[in-house]
Automatic annotation (TrEMBL):
Presence of the UniProt keyword Transmembrane helix in the record: yes
Residue ranges of the TM segments: 53-79, 100-125, 145-167, 174-195
Organism: Alicyclobacillus cycloheptanicus
Entry keywords, A to Z: Membrane, Transmembrane, Transmembrane helix
Keyword flag Transmembrane helix: yes
Designated name of the protein: 4-hydroxybenzoate polyprenyltransferase
């Protein structure tokens, strides 16, 4: 009995560390926009130090369970580029090429089934977030999947991704939602709002 609980706790700890690393990097990329909205995330407060902290968390997650951490990280990488899959990246290749490479790396190191779970689970989380934020994103001129396809269509994609995640690994899917809840609460508690907005020149005003 203890062995089963230990395995579940190891998976959860790895998910939390890898998920926190992905969250920090995502907030770092959105730092300028968050400043304009008057939102001070940890990435806004940490500044350039955010990336070393994210790397450290990712390495801890990999040390706990390398296969799971790889699946979470590269699953997030693939899903993160889904909405811009035709754009040319700094590597001078289309985003879909890097998506395929990331999926292949995940499958090579974590196994195809765990890699598939990582992509599907990250898609569920990302697309649900798009549905929740569709109104606020439209107001701020941001584009997300729900805004482009429609809420009903996006929810259908979420359902398909969820079914894929459950069929790939039901236990990890359940733990994934627990990890998501913990990380969401932690992010909310660590975020402050100063009620500033961007002026027309991109500056900030109180």
């Amino acid at each position: 009995m203890f062995g089963a609980w230990h395995e579940w706790l190891v998976w959860l700890a790895s998910m939390l560390c890898a998920g926190a690393a992905v969250k920090l990097m995502d907030d770092y990329l959105d730092a300028d926009f968050d400043k304009c909205r008057g939102v001070r995330t940890l990435a806004v407060r940490f500044g350039r130090a955010t990336l070393p902290y994210a790397v450290a968390l990712g390495l801890i997650g990999a040390a706990i369970d390398v296969h799971l951490a790889v699946a979470v990280f590269f699953g997030s990488y693939v899903v993160g580029m889904f909405s811009t899959w035709r754009e040319t990246l700094p590597t001078r290749v289309p985003a879909y090429v890097e998506m395929v490479v990331a999926a292949a790396i995940s499958a090579a190191f974590a196994g195809w089934q765990l890699a598939l779970w990582g992509i599907a689970m990250m898609a569920v989380i990302d697309w649900l977030d798009d549905v929740i934020d569709v109104t606020s994103d439209k107001q701020t001129g941001q584009s997300n999947l729900a805004a482009r396809l429609g809420v009903a269509e996006t929810l259908l994609l979420v359902l398909m991704a969820l079914c894929t995640a459950v069929l790939s690994n039901a236990k990890l899917t359940g733990l994934g939602f627990i990890a998501l809840t913990v990380l969401s609460v932690a992010a909310e508690l660590a975020t402050t709002r100063v009620w500033e907005s961007c002026d027309e020149d991109g500056g900030m005003e109180a």
